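Open question from group meeting: does this chain pack into something compact, or does most of it stay loose? Before anyone orders reagents, we agreed to write out a predicted structure and look at it together. Recording both the input and the output here so the notebook holds the full record.
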Amino acid sequence: MVATHITGATAPPHTAGPPAGNPGRRRLSPQTEGVLALLVTVSIWAAFALSARALSTSTLLPADAALLRFGVPLVVLLPALWRRRHSIAAVRPGPALKIVCGAGVPFFLAAMHGGALTSAAFVGSIVPGMVPLFVSALMAARGHGAPRGTQAAGLTLIAVGVAALVWRYVVPVDADVLEGAGTLLVASGLWALYTVGLRDVALDPVGSIGLLCLPSFAVIGLLVLTGVLPTGIAHAAGGDIALFLVVQGLGVGLCAGLLYAVAIRRLGAQRSSVGGSLSPVAVVLLAIPLLGETPSLAVLIGVPLITAGVFLANRRPRPKVPAHA
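Structure tokens returned:
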């Protein structure tokens, strides 16, 4: 789950026919490349929600998953991050703190804990679904004004959808699910902080990954070494390690950020952000065969409401074109 917005980038012009020097291959159009990148990104976001739920039955502990999540991208991108060390170090403390707290160790542990107490549908709906609402609140607090029109309608649908998800656990009270849902709301608020922080830095996607993962890996490593967080990675099953290495380290930590940037370059920020509304639906559908979860009535009502709300909240009105005489 990495939302990297790139402005001022233009897609390369599409040329018909195979590229010169390689007559046997046909180049994909920019639109096709963007759609493919976005579909893979949404799949990775869904895998994050599924892995948050699967961690509760895994031989790995949350600290182990965090080490893989933040450590693998550092190893893969080490040469590129070294070339960007000066630009990463030049980021102001305020935005850097928003990014590190918003998508780093606090967010990761909150999402994993919330997933262990609820379901994949909750993680996939509440965490990304509530982000537009929290971002709007943060932007309003910075003097950007309250949302209006379709954005306000979308935020209302999101709130109603989340209420529909948790209402059945209020009467009678299910303390574990309510605690998990509350923790997921905290995770969503942290991700919104990360989103706002990304707007305040002038780093490319690789630099943004480094800014997030370097301090996060250091923090989780310190917590493990001092015994604050237990670790069981030395005795974990090899299959669990491989699964979280691929999903969290390579998938969420590396590929999602880079591919989402490609989608934005090819499709634009608006169309790419709207594609994120597919994530809750993908999570619910994938959780049925992979985790054996059966969607409840609350999920069947809440998830479509949240999906529609995210779509509307990310929708931007088309600029008015003046009529020609």
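Observations to bring back to the group:
The CA atoms of residues 101 and 107 lie 7 Å apart.
The chain is about 70% helix and 0% strand.
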